[in-house]
Design a protein that fits this description.
The longest helix has 22 residues. The protein has 127 residues and is of the alpha+beta class.
Amino acid sequence: MNNKILAVGFLMITIFLLSAASCSKPAGFDTEQKVALAKHLTDSGIKLYGAFWCGHCGDQKNLFGEEAFQYIDYTECSTPDGTAQTEVCIEEGITSYPTWEFANGERIFGVYPLKELAEKSGFNTDK
């Protein structure tokens, strides 16, 4: 009897999870939305500073994907040999990677989900 109760409970939970998953909006952005967001960020005067050797910078780039990331106003802060910072990043006072800089001068640090960047920048995700 206990096995039947467990089986029915498991079945009910599975049905609930499957129905909830099928009703929800797909998570994440498709490539077209990523490109639109990247263009919006750049058009809004938002810049990204990073370094090629920075794992978190790579994670941020991967969230956009290659097709969309090309539209990000990105400044490489590392010299090619990875041992020093470029003059532009020194002048800008960049001390952490990745650094997002908004047109109003506000800076945020670290990897940001695309949804958060969209919200913070006023990007309409319903497009």
